[in-house]
Amino acid sequence: MSILSTxxxxxxxxxxxxxxxxxxxxxxxxxRSPVAILGLVIVGLFVILAIISPxxxxxxxxxxxxELQSELTPSNIPGPMPGFLLGSDQNGYDFFSRLLVGAQQxxxxxxFATLIGVTxxxxxxxxxxxxxxxxxxxxxxxxxxxxxxxxxxxAISIAALLPGSQWTVIIAVAMIGVPVFARLLRGAxxxxxxxxxxxxxxxxxxxxxxIVFRHMLPNSIGPVIVQATLTLATAIIDAAALSFxxxxxxxxxxxxxxxxxxxxxxxxxxxxxxxxxxxxAIIIVALGFTLLGESMRESLDPKxxx
Length: 306
Hints:
MetI-like fold, 12 helices, mainly alpha
C-alpha cells in the first residue's frame, strides 16, 4: 500500500512539473529580451548604488558645511564649487552626497512597501482561493471596496490619518497594492483547482493544507512576483507623490529622493537642480523596474509563448 501511495504521489508531482518547466522557459525568454536586459541593468546599478552609497559619498550627507552656509541667501543657493560637485541644498548640506545616499532610502521605502503589500495581499488572496465560499465572498468584497478608491487617494487618506514618518509613507503606499495582489493570487489559485495534479491529489484524499501549500500555491505565485516588480516602480513614484504633497516623512533631514523633491518645490526659481536630479533619478529607476516587470509579464503570457 505504501509503495502504491508513493507512486501516486510521484505521479502527482510529475503532473505539477509543467508549472516549473513553464516558469523556467519564461525566465529564459525574459533574459533574451533586450528590454529586460536594459531593465535589469538599471535595477542592478540602482541596488548596487543603494548598498555602497554611504561608503562612496564624498561628504557627510547629514552635516551642514560652513563654506556652503556662508553663501546661502534667500535668492541664492551655491552651485558647484571645489569639494562640492553639485553645490549645496537649501540647508547648506552637500547636495551630491545626499543624492547618492538617497538611493538607499528610496530603495528602503519601495522594497518594504512592496513586501508589506505582497504579504497582506497573498494572505487575503490565499485564504480566498483556498477556502472559497463565504470566505472568498467576504474577502473579495473588502478588496472591491479598496479597489473602488483611486490608488493615490487611498494613500493620501491613510497618510493623513497617521503621524508623518517614513513608516507612514511605507504603510500608505503598501495598502495600494494589497487588493491587486489579493485578486491576482486568488484568480491563479482558482485556476489551479481544476488542474490535473490538484484533482489527482484531491481524489487520493490528500489534506487541503498539503494541496494548497504543495500544489496550488507554488504554481500560482509566478504572476505575483511579476506584479511585485511592477508595483515596486509605482511604490517609489507614489512615495515621492506623498512627499511632494506634504504628507511624507516629517524628518526633512532624511536623504530620500521623494522627500528631496518635495522640499525643493518652492525653490525651483532659485535652484532648479534641487528638484531636477531627484526627479530624473526616480524616473530612471521606475523605468528600470517597469521594463523588467513588463518583460517578465509578457514572457509568462501564454499568447507570447512561441
